[in-house]
Structures are given as C-alpha cells and as structure tokens.
C-alpha cells in the first residue's frame, strides 16, 4: 500500500459561551504547514472570552487507495483539512484525534457523536504535496453499474395469519 505523510501544526480555540448548559466550546481554527518550533498547548492569544492554542504537530496521511477523494478535495475550489478533537481527562481537556484530507474519513468519525469535527483551509504547501501524490498514484477506475437482482413477486404477498389445518392429523 502506498502511503505518504505530511507534518502539520494544529491551532484550536477555546471559546466562552453564553449558554446555561455549556460554558465553553473547542473549535479547530487553522493548520500550519510543517512542524512549528513550539511546545504543544502553547497559548498563542488570550482574551476574556477566547484562548487560542497551538495544539501540537500531527501527521496527515495520504493513502494511494484514497486518491479520488483527495482529487475531489483539491478540485473543490476550497481545499480543506478535517480535524477531529476528542475530550480527555488530561489538561487542557481536549486532544487532537485526527487530521485528514479525506472527507469520508472525517465523516466516519461523526458516528461517535462525541468528537468535535471541523474543517479548516488546507495550506498551499500541503495542497502542492497532495496534488503531487495524487498525480503519482491515482488510478482511474471506470464506473460499473451493478445490475439489480430480479424481484420475487411472491416475497411481498399476503400470507394467512393462521396456519391451515393439515389433513394428515385425522
């Protein structure tokens, strides 16, 4: 299996909310190409209602089997990366679970209903690397429409509610 990686730095915000049930929300806001020289969870900006953090360096993986999704992402006019955050007991209470260029992989993470998944713009350096990967590894697969099995007309027929009396019990 063909696989390449790109390092990115993730920036997230903790926003104070005016909500009776939740006092704050975590939101991914940016991705930086490469690995910035900063420790994880460094505060970049802080106000009374917002704290912006450098969450750390993470790998974005590119797989040869997913080039169709990458190509569509690059062609979208707004190439994006999806970031999944998950609550943890360790400070600051959130952790980056995934950074991906594949929208279907991010969608699969929504099944837990506990992760925070959001999209951020893809840096130009990552776009170029991803485009080169797609160019080198994409294989076009022709669309093949599957024929449906013929329906069994008796499958939906009404059936008697009570069993028919059997003649062999006389």
Describe the structure in your own words.
By secondary structure, the chain is α+β, with helices and mostly antiparallel strands. It has one domain. The chain is 18% helix and 38% strand. The strands form two sheets. A four-stranded antiparallel β-sheet has the order 2-1-4-3. β1 (3-16) and β2 (24-33) form a beta hairpin. α1 crosses α3 (124-137). It starts with a strand and ends in a 33-residue tail after the last helix. The model has no long low-confidence stretch (mean pLDDT 89).
Keywords:
three-stranded antiparallel sheet; 170 residues; flat; alpha+beta; 7 strands; 18% helix; 3 helices
Question: Secondary structure elements and their pairing?
Answer:
Elements: E1 3-16, E2 24-33, E3 42-46, E4 50-63, H1 67-75, E5 80-87, E6 94-100, H2 103-109, E7 116-121, H3 124-137
Antiparallel strand pairs: 1-2, 1-4, 3-4, 5-6, 5-7
Helix pairs in contact: 1-3
């Amino acid at each position: 299996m063909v696989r390449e990686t790109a390092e990115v730095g993730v920036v997230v915000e903790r926003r104070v909310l005016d909500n009776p049930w939740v006092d704050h929300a975590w939101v991914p806001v940016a991705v930086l190409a490469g690995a910035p020289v900063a420790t994880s969870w460094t505060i970049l900006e802080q106000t009374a209602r917002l704290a912006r953090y450098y969450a750390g360096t993470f790998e974005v993986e590119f797989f040869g089997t997913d080039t169709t999704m990458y190509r569509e992402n690059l062609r979208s006019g707004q190439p994006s990366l999806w970031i999944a955050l998950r609550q943890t007991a360790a400070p600051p209470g959130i952790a980056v679970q995934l950074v991906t260029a594949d929208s279907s992989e991010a969608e699969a993470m929504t099944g837990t209903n506990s992760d925070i998944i959001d999209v951020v713009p893809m840096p130009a350096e990552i776009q170029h690397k991803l485009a080169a990967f797609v160019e080198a590894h994409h294989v076009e697969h022709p669309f093949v429409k599957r024929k449906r099995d013929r329906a069994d007309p008796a499958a939906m027929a009404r059936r008697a509610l009570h069993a028919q009396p059997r003649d062999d019990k006389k």
